[in-house]
Design brief:
There is one protein chain. By secondary structure, the protein is mainly α. It has one helix at about 5-50. The protein is rod-shaped.
């Protein structure tokens, strides 16, 4: 017969695994989105900046 303690421990481990995996996925998505927005802002600044004349 399986111990209830081991069942609770296994369930807690599974919940923590899903939580940590979701957190890593969220941080990865947020980092990608921020990097993309920064690149778009840099492109906009380059387009709108006056060109230097020699």
């Amino acid at each position: 017969m399986e111990s209830p303690f081991l069942s609770i421990l296994a369930l807690a481990a599974a919940v923590l695994l899903v939580t940590v995996t979701g957190g890593i996925g969220y941080l990865t998505l947020a980092s990608w989105r921020d990097r993309r927005l920064q690149e778009e802002e840099k492109r906009e600044l380059r387009r709108s900046a006056p060109k230097k004349r020699k």
